[in-house]
Amino acid sequence: MRYQITGKQIDVGEALQSHVKSELGEVAEKYMQRPTDAQITFSRDAHEYICEATVHLSTGLTASAKGHATEIYAAFDAAREKMDKQLRRHKRRLKDHHRDRAEPVEFEAAGLYVLASEEDDDTGETHEGAPMIVAEMETKVPTLSVGEAVMQMELSDASLLVFRNEKHGGVNVVHRREDGNVGWIDPRNSK
């Protein structure tokens, strides 16, 4: 597994890097998820250290975790525990569904736009009345089953995931509702 360990205005020493590699490698081996690479970023917010960890699995799924603590090692340990819990749940769901993806997830390129909010600007709109585009980026839309999409959303700790439904090829959305349940939007079944 390839590791990219960085610090935002923090010097990440050799001891911390070796600790991160051994602990995260142990978590990945424990659940045999065949990780390809991991990105770990340390930063500081006032008196607190923040550790953000992202592990890409060979199936195309991504697991993300974030930890906070007053010490840098404790922040990593909190993120590692969350990652361990996510990968354990993921493995349990794969066993429960008796389905293991043999081939990697297919991704399709899509445009991602960041629009200015009205608070960012006096009007937040251009002369034509359309919102002002602040940034244009590219994102990837995976082709997944609904169950895999829910797992991916939970693994990445996101509140929303846009995906292409592998059953019919249409674009679908799964999202975390305010009541804690997961919502699924399938425009194809609107009739």
The CATH homology group name of the largest domain: Ribosome hibernation promotion factor-like
Shape: globular
**Could you name the CATH topology of the largest domain?**
Double Stranded RNA Binding Domain
Write down the secondary-structure element order. Answer: EHEEEHEEHEEE
Unreliable spans: 123-127
- Total helices: the number is 3
> Largest sheet at a glance?
5 strands, mixed
Assigned CATH class of the largest domain: Alpha Beta
| Domain module tally | 2
What is the radius of gyration computed over CA atoms, rounded to a whole number of angstroms?
19 Å
Portion in strands: 35-45%
- Give the CA-CA distance, first to last residue: 47 Å
Neighbour order of strands in the largest sheet: 5-6-7-8-9
| CATH architectural name of the largest domain | 2-Layer Sandwich
- What is the SS-derived class? alpha+beta
Q: What's the pLDDT, averaged over the residues? A: 81
Walk me through what this model shows:
With 191 residues, the chain is an alpha+beta fold. The chain has 2 domains: 96 residues, Double Stranded RNA Binding Domain (2-Layer Sandwich); 84 residues, Sigma 54 modulation/S30EA ribosomal protein, C-terminal domain (SHC Adaptor Protein, 2-Layer Sandwich), CATH 3.30.505. The chain is 28% helix and 38% strand. The chain is built from 3 helices and 9 strands, in the order E-H-E-E-E-H-E-E-H-E-E-E. A 5-stranded mixed β-sheet has the order 5-6-7-8-9. Strand 1, helix 1 and strand 2 form a beta-alpha-beta unit. The longest helix has 26 residues. It is globular and about 55 Å long. The termini are far apart. This is Ribosome hibernation promoting factor. Belongs to the HPF/YfiA ribosome-associated protein family. Long HPF subfamily. Its main location: cytoplasm. It holds the Pfam family Ribosom_S30AE_C. InterPro entries: HPF/YfiA_ribosome-assoc (IPR050574), HPF_long/plastid (IPR034694), RHF-like (IPR036567), RHF/RaiA (IPR003489), Ribosom_S30AE_C (IPR032528), Ribosom_S30AE_C_sf (IPR038416).
